[in-house]
Amino acid sequence: MHLSAFVRLASADREILTQALQRRVRILEPRQDIIREGERPRFVNVILEGWAQRYKQLADGRRQILSFFIAGDLCDANIFILKQMDHSLSTVTRVKLAEISQSEFQEIMERSPRIAQALWWNELVTVAIQREWTTNIGQRTAYERIAHLFCEMFVRLRTTGRTDDDECEFPLTQSEIAEATGLTQVHVNRTIQEMRRDQLIELRNKRLKVFDLDRLMSVALFNPNYLHLDHEGLA
């Protein structure tokens, strides 16, 4: 977990996390459900490798993707208050994840106030991202929505050292981009082609190349403050 992005963790804190993440590990193949809506949650899931997503699915099969997870992300730290899931989690790529039980999770927070504080910051960022996604669908144009998604994922990956200069992994299909941005797949395809012609991005072989991040951020009306990358929680 990249909780140290929010709070300075001592070596003892990092050892507690390391042990928790090694106790129970699962590997799932791409496009496989981790847990479905209606099921009883038993674990906090932490993504160790790969990409995952949170989604809601309507009775007629239509789906809205609500967020993406990358390595180091927790999928719902407060999951234990639910008797059953009100949304689903699934993999995008092949995923390696750690499962932390309720008792283990409570023990971690009791043993380390610093980790507990970092978890509060993590939840704050999770909610802030959700607010931004709501703003995307409610106010931004199709061009701005997709550009914003590219910016967010590129900046998040760069913060965790998972970019290569101006490129990063980007395994999302156009269908998944559509489900995340509230657009049709045809509209997504046209918009990405337009962005290519504008020499903003290139998508090829599940890789995203950003030619000018500042320009892309400007086009997307992207302000990274909601990701809290300035480490305001450090103390």
Task: Give a quick rundown of the structure.
Keywords: DNA-binding, Transcription, Transcription regulation. This protein has helices at residues 11-23, 102-111, 113-139, 142-159, 174-181, 185-197, 213-220; strands spanning 25-28, 33-35, 43-49, 52-57, 63-69, 74-75, 88-91, 95-101, 163-164, 167-169, 201-204, 207-210. With 235 residues, it is of the alpha+beta class.
Describe the structure.
The chain is an alpha+beta fold and 235 residues long. It has two domains: 3-124, Jelly Rolls (Sandwich); 141-227, Arc Repressor Mutant, subunit A (Orthogonal Bundle), CATH 1.10.10.10. It has helices at residues 11-23, 102-111, 113-139, 142-159, 174-181, 185-197, 213-220; strands spanning 25-28, 33-35, 43-49, 52-57, 63-69, 74-75, 88-91, 95-101, 163-164, 167-169, 201-204, 207-210. A four-stranded antiparallel beta sheet has the order 1-8-3-6. The chain has a four-stranded antiparallel beta sheet with strand order 2-7-4-5. A four-stranded antiparallel beta sheet has the order 9-10-12-11. Strand 9 (163-164) and strand 10 (167-169) form a beta hairpin. It is globular and about 55 Å long. Residues 140-214 form the HTH crp-type domain. GO terms for molecular function: DNA binding; DNA-binding transcription factor activity. Keywords: DNA-binding, Transcription, Transcription regulation. InterPro entries: cNMP-bd_dom, cNMP-bd_dom_sf, Env_Response_Regulators, HTH_CRP, RmlC-like_jellyroll, WH-like_DNA-bd_sf, WH_DNA-bd_sf.
State the main characteristics:
235 residues; alpha+beta; Jelly Rolls; 2 domains; four-stranded antiparallel sheet; globular
